[in-house]
């Protein structure tokens, strides 16, 4: 294996640093994507609950879970609470989508920088045939 040591080229520190940043950004993007999926699911569930409540008469008995106890609540109070939750989830989803877009752009830009640096470091003499 001694022969390989001479053949392996050392990657410049700046490239290593950018690659580490690239990996961290990808990890962050993955976490945001997971949170986005969970937020979308919660939003769909909230919309479904509001849809079901709209089918009930205004004086219907409705219950909600508080901790481990079902508590009777007025339908209009529950609808108001769910509407607020829906709005909050929609805002959160938009923020996550904006973060996801920005991170994707940053990752693409960083990857291009790394490719350029590796291309320049690999040739040492510039473009061939120029």
Commentary on this structure:
The protein is mainly α. The chain has one domain (12-119): Helix Hairpins (Orthogonal Bundle). Helices cover 75% and strands 8% of the residues. The chain has three helices and two strands, in the order H-H-E-E-H. The protein has helices at residues 2-7, 13-54, 75-123, and strands spanning 62-66, 69-73. A two-stranded antiparallel ribbon has the order 1-2. The model is unreliable at 125-130 (pLDDT under 50).
The figure for the number of domains is 1
Helix content: over 70%
Mean pLDDT: 89
- How many helices? The count is 3
The description of the largest β-sheet is: 2 strands, antiparallel
SSE succession: HHEEH
| Number of distinct beta strands | 2
Query: Uncertain regions: pLDDT < 50 for 5+ in a row?
Result: 125-130
Distance between the termini: 37 Å
User: How large, in whole angstroms, is the Cα Rg?
Assistant: 26 Å
Supply the CATH class. Mainly Alpha
Widest sheet, order of strands: 1-2
CATH topology: Helix Hairpins
Strand content: 5-15%
- In CATH terms, what is the architecture? Orthogonal Bundle
Output the structural class: mainly alpha
- Outline, from the CA principal axes? rod-shaped
Task: Write a concise keyword list for the protein shown above.
75% helix; 8% strand; disordered C terminus; two-stranded antiparallel ribbon; 130 residues; 3 helices; mainly alpha; 2 strands; Helix Hairpins
List the helices and strands and how they pair.
Blueprint (H helix, E strand, L loop, with lengths): L1 H6 L5 H42 L7 E5 L2 E5 L1 H49 L7
Antiparallel strand pairs: 1-2
Helix pairs in contact: 2-3
